[in-house]
Amino acid sequence: MKKILLVEDDKSIIANLSEFLKKEGFSVVNAEGQARALEIISEEQFDLVLLDVSLADGNGFAVCSAIKSESSTPVIFLTASGDEYSTVTGFELGADDYIAKPFRPRELILRIKNILRLTGGTGSVTKLGDVTIDTEKGIASRNGNDLYLSALEYRLLLVFLNNRGTVLSRNQLLEAIWDIAGEFVNDNTLTVYIKRLRDKIEKDPQDPQIIKTIRGLGYRVD
Asked: Are 27 and 1 in contact (CB under 8 A)?
């Protein structure tokens, strides 16, 4: 049974989400603030941490930093902050994913399972073609050279990575990244970001071998 630490100070979210996670087969430990979370992670090991950015006695960034300085435990930020600053900060500290409230419980479970599959619950480096993605450090590189992805580009890459072999429609991609750029992400903007991502990760962006267009359906990463 995978063990999850839920760091959240909203009692209703703690109760509802803990119950839902347990029904999905996870073991859940709760921490309502930064101090308690830091105390727990110094004493116990977890397969994944769900972490709110805004805490009554501090913030999730400090907790994420402490976790990543001692281990490669996957961290998913769970927050009402949909601004790009919070997202970038989270990824820079090593967060593995980011989901904004309000969220659909089933989407969160999917994200958790994808991260656990990707990292094995302990952080991981994986490859797409000749591109290496370090989900612990939150960077993508080729031949040791950082590709300098923006937060939205990295999130888009994670969405593809977590759905390998699955054709993703444009609507699914828009839904997955809306919480980073909000209303500024529309269909035309998505086209721009896919082009930017391909320019950075593909050897030949005009003949993409990583992010493939499935005509009439969407995109797929094998």
From this structure: yes
